[in-house]
Amino acid sequence: MKKVVPILAFLLLNIFEGYTQITSPVIRANFGVDADMRSNFFNGFVQSGNDDWFMLPGSIGTGQFMIDTTGAAARVARYATDVPFRRSSFIRMMRYPVFSVINNRLLLDAAFVRDFHGDDSTVFASGASKNGDNPGDWSTPVSQGIPDKNDILDVMVHIRRAGPNITDSLWMMGGMSLDNTTGDRYFDFEMYQTDLTYNRSTLKFTGYGPDAGHTSWQFDAAGNIIKAGDIIFSAEYQSASLTFIEARIWVNQASLSISPVAFAWSGQFDGASYGATYGYASIQPKGAGTYYTGLQCANNTWGGPFSIILQNDAIATNYIAKQYVEFSVNLTKLGLDPVTSITGDPCGMPFRRLLVKTRASASFTAQLKDFVAPVAMFIAPKADIATETPSMCNSGSIGEIHVTNPVSTSTYQWTTPNGNIISSPTGPSIFIDKPGTYIVTQYLMVGCTAYARDTIQVTLSSGCFVLPAELADLRGTYKDGWSQLNWKALNNQQVEQFLVQRSEDGTNFTTVGQVDKQGSSSGTVSYSFTEDISKVNGQRVYYRVVLVSLSHAIKYSNVISLSMAAMTHNNNITIFPNPARDIVQLQLAALSNSTIKIDIFDAAGRLVATRHTVVYRGNNVIAIEDLTGKPRGLYTICVNTGEESFKQKLLLIK
Q: Do residues 445 and 310 both lie within one domain?
């Protein structure tokens, strides 16, 4: 039963006078609100630049379409021969990641939903449900038909800001098509803060809020919002045009004695029954001016790439006049912007679930008819991390951890309480050189509160342990195409063998030889190894020795670098030291005097530095200072001589 909160009579008579609606085509936040689904069209004519739900095939312009249309052609083709398939529901979300900036507008999310057709359970049982009820008390049948003027065909919703910044006005765009156009039409876009869900098996709604089935708005004594709750927009379209849109929020009736800072009460309150503690109270902006627009389509309005399925299973390409309605609401002007009026969080969500339903009459508590099952909004993939090196040694190993499902608009920040990150701690992946716990925190946008976290444990391998440098004492020399290594081993009786490993870049090593244990001495024993490397390309080689114990545990020595400049007879490059902390040397043996180009790319493939320098025939050593101040991580140094190109990986460790 409706209860009218006492208010001055003249205000009741003029409640909407300062907020008259716009029922002619408009563009809001660069989105066409003209009851036409086509981007780069406005009011039936070509107009490049404005965004909309879809793009008409063959049309051109800078305006973008919001809904993911993947598979539309295949679905429409199947409609032609598969009648039961026409009756099925499906949903498509925004084609861009949430919080993308497109055409200088910040896009939060969008959805297109096709309702079930024919007799089904996504309708309200006759006379059993109304606005203000606890959703848990709503009754839905196993199967039931409804009047065609109340039968929802498709629903669309889109949330965006009028500019690229979180301070720009927040707009909600909505659209809905109904089967029939005769008579007046009444519908609600109801937004929940909880994960409201409809189960077609049990015919019940679950996941509703704690306050009589909803989440209530809460205020402090000064009228500031301290907690956001559920919202509903109730629209009335008469035969000619949009009559009005009423905004309501779910509150404890006692809150009506408080004067909110962000908006004003406008006099209506409806709960489940007369005297209910909780219910929907109507609100209006503090200042005069239009906060919503809306209108109905003209005849032969394009129905979008998924075509139109009518109640009788017929397929249509275009809408008849008034079959599709569209509206917009300025949530910022209405005082429902989570950034300016509520949390201040740049990624604050105005709601989590959207439920669209039709009513039998203009009364807010009229019998509910059809509904589209709750749609989840603003859901980005939550960070999930993995690694190909789940265990590693405390020394001599490098591993990578990465986000398996990165979102291009999200920021990822890595931390570790006991490991060691050797690359930049920001981004979808990191490099590490120690076992430990690694944590990634995902932010949907810079400046937002944390959206998701994931943790991975990299364990200490049971087959390796740290080798103190004094136990290896690895040394090496190069002469006439041969390398010679010398090292020492303590506690020789525990040694099974040594593996000699060589690398051309200082990072990726290959075993090139094996040295067996010498005798049974238990003291300090010297070892050596020689190798013909005359055919190895490059100016420098790297070696390390792996000690394999009788228990098959392994120990890595330090890495040494040997210069081979005297043996090189063609263009090649060597980077040293590698890994490096800031300045590195590039060694190049050139066949002639020339100018070379040096490009440096980060791990994401972005060019971070470029330079040109002159080299002379013979050996050249070039100092590269471009990495000073750059973040840790893997870089690729590319050298182009004009005739040949060379690449080397460099690990910057800081």
A: no
Lowest mean pLDDT among 105-109, 167-171, 614-618: 614-618
The H or E element containing residue 333 is helix 331-334
Instruction: Evaluate if residue 357 carries a pLDDT over 90.
Output: yes
According to the model, what pLDDT value does residue 575 have?
84
Q: Encode 294-321 in three state secondary structure.
A: EEECCCCEECCCCCEECCCCCEECEECC
Which residue's entry shows tokens 């690729």?
636
In a domain, 511, yes or no: no
Which of 536, 539, 541, 646 has the alpha carbon at shortest distance from 589? Answer: 539
Length of the chain: 654
If asked whether residues 334 and 404 sit together in one domain, one would say no
The tokens 């040997």 sit on which residue?
Answer: 562
Task: Give 307 or 507, the one with higher predicted confidence.
Answer: 307
- Token pair recorded at residue 580: 């490096």
Cα separation of 311 and 250, whole Å?
33
pLDDT tens figures, 545-582: 988 887 777 788 878 888 776 433 344 678 888 888 77
Q: Which residues contact 508 (CB under 8 A, 6 or more apart)?
A: none
Closest CA to 469 of 547, 378, 388: 547
Q: What is the pLDDT of residues 39-92, one digit of tens each?
A: 999 998 999 999 999 999 999 999 999 999 999 999 999 999 999 999 999 999
Are the CB atoms for 379 and 99 separated by under 8 Å?
Answer: no
CATH label of the domain that carries residue 455? 2.60.40
Q: From the CB of residue 616, how many other CB atoms can be counted at a distance below 10 Å?
A: 11
Structure confidence by residue, pLDDT tens digits, 440-491: 999 998 888 899 999 999 998 776 654 443 455 777 878 888 898 988 887 7
The reply to whether 67 and 156 lie within a common domain is yes
Neighbours of 416 (CB within 10 A): 18
Residues 358, 187 contacting (CB under 8 angstroms)? yes
Domain limits for position 422: 385-460
Q: Is residue 590 part of a domain?
A: yes
Same domain, residue pair 449 and 346 = no
Are residue 158 and residue 91 in the same domain, yes or no? yes
Q: Is residue 321 domain-shared with residue 219, that is, in the same domain?
A: yes
Find the CATH number of the domain harbouring 651.
2.60.40.2550
User: Could you tell me if 93 and 232 lie in one domain?
Assistant: yes
Residue 548 lies in a domain: no
153 and 234 share a domain?
yes
Split into its structural domains, the chain has a count of 3
Question: Which pLDDT score, from 0 to 100, does residue 643 have?
Answer: 67
Which residue intervals of 462-518 are DSSP H helices? 469-472
